[in-house]
Amino acid sequence: MTADPAVPAGPLTGPATPGESPETMRTRVAALLGRSRDRSTALTALDDGELAAQHSPLMSPLVWDLAHIGSMEELWLVRDVGGREPLRPEIDGLYDAFQHSRSSRVELPLLTPAEARGYVAEVRDKALDALHRSPLRGRRLEAEGFAFGMIVQHEQQHDETMLATHQLRSGGPVLDAAPPPRPAGAVDPAAEVLVPAGPFEMGTSAEPWALDNERPAHVVDLPAFRIDVHPVTNGAFAAFVDAGGYDDPRLWTDAGWAHRTEEGLVAPRFWSRDSDGTWWRRRFGVVERVPDDEPVVHVSFHEAQAYARWVGKRLPTEAEWEKAARHDPATGRSRRFPWGDDEPRAEHANLGQRHLQPAPVGSYPAGASALGVQQMVGDVWEWCDSGWHPYPGFSVFPYPEYSEVFFGGDYAVLRGGSFGTDPAAIRATFRNWDHPIRRQIFAGFRLVRDAGV
Ligand SMILES: [Fe+2]
């Protein structure tokens, strides 16, 4: 049997590939929409009281996320691509993220869980109809399935947000997943690699589902630097805590120290120490010992920076992170993912909520970048020492509220996705951003230093 060259090898788990046929694209989109809905359903399999409750002022009630997922899908796939009349125009404002802060959404006359489930199912039927009617060519919103890819990513992004709400919820565990893999051999958590000086291509003009902020591709020239092969581990971070890192203002920036003092921070969020000095953490309702060899998670940008100063290193800039992830010195080109251009498979990265925690460092050697840097995609989002800015030549598409309105604000960039991020919602060009004080997200970090140091 010969393989159809238009159909990429693998289970169509990732974002659309450049040059993909409309037939393959349709199969891919339908599979990805189904997978994201299965996940949204699992994350909202709680009783009505829990779904309507506000588990943290940082988060929306889960039932808001669910109907908002449907509202965005209706707006772009049913009304715009499908050309249909609004299904429930009276609820548009309730689910507009710009009209209501997360902390105020619990006060709104939201759809009940049963109504929200009915609404998202009705929207999905019509979105699938639009998928079968669209040529997936022609106008920019439909070419290469962009609008469908945007909505797949949007639902998956809310699934990660809902996972963070689950982590903030009190009470016993309701989610379950297999433990992550372990490394096959010995791992040196302090290993570094040299990233040679020179230009590389940052961003993309070719990735079909890349969002506006990832575009266009442009050349960036960097001096040589050394980057950690692995993200900073819990064990390494605990040494910083135990050495009094949270009590030494010299290690913190002014903004970081002010925040640490105001909030009384003493350790990563969800950590606690018992009387004999052992660190414990609460993870989705389970209290367990903090595993030394996993990447640290639930630390803010400020905590990452203080740790970096303590060990005499620094956070990478966004360009340094992307060069270490994508640059192939043998060919001079930039890859779609650290391991190459193939879409993510289970052996490459800890993605997609398959495991509800980061994997120990060294668990994904098959996912290493050309330069030998590991776990850049999956496990934990990685804080970068870069603000949120457009690339040269940026243009808004398809709407300013996706990225543009946030440019220049009080944000730091995060890269690489986490164990909670779906394979279809990540690539090595993907850019995320958040306030430097945030700790509820699945974020950790790795460090760099100048090559001469
Ligand atoms: Fe949204």
UniProtKB/TrEMBL annotation:
Q: Which residues bind gamma-L-glutamyl-L-cysteine?
A: 102-105, 434, 438
Q: What is this protein called?
A: Hercynine oxygenase
Residues in domain Sulfatase-modifying factor enzyme-like?
190-449
| Low complexity composition-biased segments | 1-19
- Report the EC number(s), separated by commas if there are several: 1.14.99.50
The enzyme's first-digit EC class, named in words, is oxidoreductase
Q: What species is given as this protein's source? A: Pseudonocardia alni (Amycolata alni)
Task: Provide the gene name from the record.
Answer: egtB
Q: A single GO molecular function, which one?
A: gamma-glutamyl hercynylcysteine sulfoxide synthase activity
